[in-house]
Each structure stands twice: as structure tokens, then as C-alpha cells.
Amino acid sequence: MDYVLDNVVEWKDRLVNNSIKSFEEMTAQRWVRIIAIVGAYLLIRPYLLNAAAKKQKKQLEKEAEDLGLGKTDALDANDFRGKGVRVKKGEAKKKE
């Protein structure tokens, strides 16, 4: 047990020392490089997430179709409201 505890203490000391030395030895060029990388990641991330969501949605729709869980001709709740007029989310139904 002592051996494991000694190793953990040594790893912690190395991590602290290496982290401190890394920040002390940072040049302006390295800071600019890190800022550019993080900024590019933050700008690109939403597009990557949207692309992944679309891909996942297509895959789930394909799996649902393969399992026979697609759209059916059965009545749903919207068919009972206003003579079957479908109102999409965010749209307001005009009063006549």
C-alpha cells in the first residue's frame, strides 16, 4: 500500500512541477497559437454539432423505417383540432 501512495504523491509532484514550468516557459508566439486554436475550435464546434445531429437524425429515421415505425394513416391529435388543419410549432393559426 505504501508503494501505491508513494507513486501517487510522486505523480502529483510531477504534474504540479511540469504545469508550472509549462506556463513559465510560454512565449508570446505560443500564447497566440493557443488562443488561435481555442478560438477556431469555438467557432467550428456549433457546425460540427449540427452536422453530427443531422447525421444521427438520418440514421435514427432509417432505423425507424426498417423497424416499421414510420408514419401511419391513423388519426392523431391534430386531426381532431380544427378540421384537420395542422399548425406547426411557432406558427399562429389565423382567425377567419
Proportion of residues in extended strands: under 5%
Low-confidence stretches: none
**Alpha-carbon distance between the termini?**
81 Å
Which geometry do the CA atoms define? elongated
Please compute the radius of gyration using only Cα atoms.
28 Å
- Write down the overall mean pLDDT: 85
Note the total helix count. 2
**Which structural class is indicated by helix and strand composition?**
mainly alpha
The quaternary structure here is: single chain
> How many strands?
0
H/E series, N to C? Answer: HH
Largest sheet: none
Q: What is the helix fraction of residues, given as a range?
A: 55-70%
Fold and architecture overview:
The protein has two helices and no strands. The relative contact order is 0.04. It is 66% helix and 0% strand. It has 96 residues and is mostly helical. It is elongated. The protein has a domain of 64 residues. The mean pLDDT is 85.
List the helices and strands and how they pair.
Blueprint: H1 2-24, H2 28-67
Please supply descriptive tags for the structure shown above:
mainly alpha; elongated; 96 residues
Summarize this entry quickly.
The protein is mainly α and 96 residues long.
